[in-house]
Amino acid sequence: MTKKVNITTDAGADVATVNQAVSDRIKSWRKSQKLSLDELSRRAGVSKGMLVEIEKGAANPSIAILCKVAAALGVSVADIVSISHAPDVWLIENSEMPVLWHGEQGGSAQLLAGTRGPDMIELWRWQMFADEVFSSTGHSSATLELLHVEQGMLALTVGEQTLMVQQGCAAVARTDMPHAYASADDQPVIFTMTVAELQR
To answer: The pTM is what?
Structure first.
């Protein structure tokens, strides 16, 4: 199982450059809100040591950690990786869409688009191969995910329930609890997912 984030793009963005940009944004938002590392750690539920490493550009944080830090700062993951904008409509080039997860067999999760925080709506494209699993401890309260399987069959586990989502089908899941995605068999699965993490 792989949960580490390898922040790259298909266009070959320099990992160090992207990590430094993430580092700079998190530090800037934290300081603009006059939050100490201790307070951000408490709000996000992320260790102070991890935050120090992220702000130094030395950490490669998981998607789950980026979600927690973003929520604690009142911004979106898209804000952190810089694919959100303020205009009424905008184009995001493929080269600007970061791949935030790589599976051990070559799978990937690419953040295609996202709104500005604190109400976060994100569009993702996932490709997973046999024996790859992505697990999350859960998002903030009342978060919903909408998933559509383009190819293969998705095993979607939420809490104790596993749902098999076939090609062409869709599912809605409340993901403020532990959940996981995997290919349901030995074939690749490709799915798109919208995450709605709204502050209520």
So the answer is: 0.69
